Amino acid sequence: MEKNHSSGEWEKMKKEINELMNEGRDYAHQFGSASSQETREHLAKKILESYHKSLTIMNYSGELDQVSHGGGSPKSDDSDQEPLHVIKSSKKSMPRWTSKVRIAPGAGIDRTLDDGFSWRKYGQKDILGAKFPRGYYRCTYRKSQGCEATKQVQRSDENQMLFEISYRGIHSCSQAANVRSNIPVQYLEPNQAQEHENLDIVKESLDNYNHQAHLNDNFHYPLSSTPNLENSNAYMLQLSDHNTEFFGSTSISSDLGTNINYNFPASGSASHSTSNSPSTVPLESPFEIYDPNHPYGGFGGFYS
DNA sequence: TGTATTTGACCTAG
DNA sequence: CTAGGTCAAATACA
Length: 304
Fold this sequence. Notes:
304 residues, alpha+beta, 8 helices, DNA-binding
């Protein structure tokens, strides 16, 4: 993707965005240790505000020149999609966010990685520099309902109990209505690398974002329009209505320590979440630690 | 027998 | 050319 902004302008924006993001991160951090519901709600609002401002800046950031959705998805893969209207829903422009999921000693992987949706594995790939292969999953209902959602599951190198799950695309299948919170709720640990990574993504998506925001002058930020951000998914759905690329990052942590017998990826136990339980995110899962009902939890410091 | 997973080949962006 | 992402035939499983 090309960057269309003058470097001066971009630097300025970058700085502001960075500050706002940091602010949001701090709030998110506090959020993690907040005891009272009230405080958490307050912090959640602050978090949203910070990111709202960031988005506003991005939105404001200037004219967009030519669309460059050259990226697009390579394969005929997308061709089974209905014809697009204004903006092609390229893979790159799909909403994307990442969850870090840590498996708890007692909980099985299946459970831990079960986000309530049904996924079918369609590939696995060794990733350069990563000890473990990355698993590629797509929604089971892709064919029957044309659901484009996909996810990638990557086990962390250092911490074998940690999985990074990248989601892409919004579920348009019938499950979407049933699954309440497919995004684990947690705060993001302050992390330099993560910050940089996120900033890069901000940068990368900026053009796309601006362009699309431009096309949708009346961009409604869900902050006010969604009285109850029941979950981040709802949030994403809204954004996706505007074809806005954004990303987020949440990280789940829990106490752990022991090894558990796990055979990702070979045995495919990674995430065969045959959706029987949309209401999962069970109590014994690590997710419980961070009140899954909390409206804003999913922002975990970085959403984009 | 139908559905899901595995896995090597293939495709494309960078 | 390489690495990441996807396809699709073969295989496993219920």
